[in-house]
């Protein structure tokens, strides 16, 4: 009888291991589906029949969240920064629930739309022209200033637990003028 109990326990353990493996695979597939959906939503327009937009539909405007993140990037970094730095800025602004895949695909979309510039692989910057093109408003910059300050210290990426590989050690932009000057 002990042998039968041992065999059944072993079989239960095998099945549980299979279930765990399948659950992991399901989680991975769901994450991939979300990433593909996000990438498709933010992909540049394609002229092929399969993805051609219907006449009369409008491109979505940039969300308030991303306008503020772009404003935060502009306020902190006059040069280049990594996705890790962008994540820290987003977190300081209260948007710390943005997943890494979403952040990556959104930044790619912002680059395609001309709202963020790709300096080199993995490094980005935002110029005054970019914030104007993105429609960043004075109220967006006031929000950034209220959360993290325009002439504040640059966020400490290392303290946030994010990697600094490829990031710029550029100090905060001390040359930024008033909010009105930034938008003019």
List the keywords:
single chain, 184 residues, mainly alpha, three-stranded antiparallel beta sheet, elongated
Strand and helix layout:
Layout: H1 2-42, H2 64-76, E1 81-82, H3 83-92, H4 100-113, E2 117-120, E3 123-125, H5 128-134, H6 138-148, H7 157-160, H8 179-183
Antiparallel strand pairs: 1-3, 2-3
Helix pairs in contact: 1-4, 2-6
Span of the ends, CA to CA:
84 Å
- Binned, the helix content reads 55-70%
H-E order: HHEHHEEHHHH
Structural class: mainly alpha
Count of discrete domains: 2
- By oligomeric state, this entry counts as single chain
Mean pLDDT: 75
Rg, nearest Å: 22 Å
Number of strands: 3
Biggest sheet strand order reads 1-3-2
- Report the sheet with the most strands, covering strand number, pairing sense and barrel closure: 3 strands, antiparallel
SS strand fraction: under 5%
Total of helices: 8
Question: How would you characterize the overall build of this protein?
Answer:
This protein is mainly alpha-helical and 184 residues long. It folds into two domains: 1-40; 64-183, no CATH class. The protein contains eight helices and three strands. Helix 2 packs across helix 6. The longest helix is centred in the first third of the chain and has 41 residues, at 2-42. The protein is elongated, with a radius of gyration of 22 Å. Residues 46-57 and 152-179 have low confidence and may be disordered.
